[in-house]
Amino acid sequence: MPPLDFHVDGNDIEIVSEWPHLGHIISSHCLDDADIFHRRNCMVRQINSVLCYFGKLPSSVKLKLLYAYFSSLYGCELWDLWNNNIDTVLPGGKL
Length: 95
Description:
Blueprint: E1 7-8, E2 11-12, E3 18-21, E4 24-27, H1 33-53, H2 59-70
Antiparallel strand pairs: 1-2, 3-4
Helix pairs in contact: 1-2
């Protein structure tokens, strides 16, 4: 089938297979892989940021900061729990 053309105010609407929405990656194939990898990369970036900027603080403070970042996997409840990529986010795939 030829692709459909949609227009809004005379501008073409691009048809894509993935699109970011509210901090998550929505896939046209209804797969969670891109969103899982995106959330994992965000979490790693946050952890590295905490360790870089607060590296000289006591371990107890860093642990509280890391806990705050680790507990922010908003939206992971929607992931397919049989997806093998969940293991890349947390060891053992435990959410």
